[in-house]
Write a structure and sequence with these properties.
Distance between the termini: 39 Å
Strand order of the largest sheet: 1-2-3-4-5
CATH class: Alpha Beta
Largest sheet: 5 strands, mixed
CATH architecture: 3-Layer(aba) Sandwich
Number of helices: 4
Number of strands: 5
Structural class: alpha+beta
Radius of gyration: 16 Å
Strand content: 15-25%
Number of domains: 1
CATH topology: Aminopeptidase
Amino acid sequence: MQTKLSILIRKLNLGEERLIAEHFYKMWIDVGVPEDAIEANWQEIILQFIQNARDNLQYQGFIAEVDGVVAGSTSCQLYAGLYPNAIKHNHRKLGYIWGVYVEPAYRRQGIAKQLTNTAVNYLQNIGCTRVVLNASPDGKPVYTSLGFVESNAMHLDLMNDL
């Protein structure tokens, strides 16, 4: 019989952004992105992204710990959008969750659900009216179990290697 883990979800502390960057990198490797397709300065790119999101998009990261060991992380922020948003925030203020990652040894223990729920609560508390995320095939069951529904987003792959 499996023992129940004592999981602590906490806010990311300043100076811990490298944990988020490392998990984001591992997530890309896990979904099959070849290492040689990732920029050599990936960590710097991610850290700059986090700083911009912190400065402009109400960024917040969360860490999952099990017995003091970092087991996972996620990030969330206001959705910057892909097009101009002329709709008032009280009608549509989108939050975005990205980089939900759990170390392999801690998967299937409910950590991803707890991280996602914590991010959803944060986004709700800052006034978001909807939360969006992009799910990996393995992540879809986690998110649908939390009430996320697939949207009308479509894509067309122009390269076969990613």
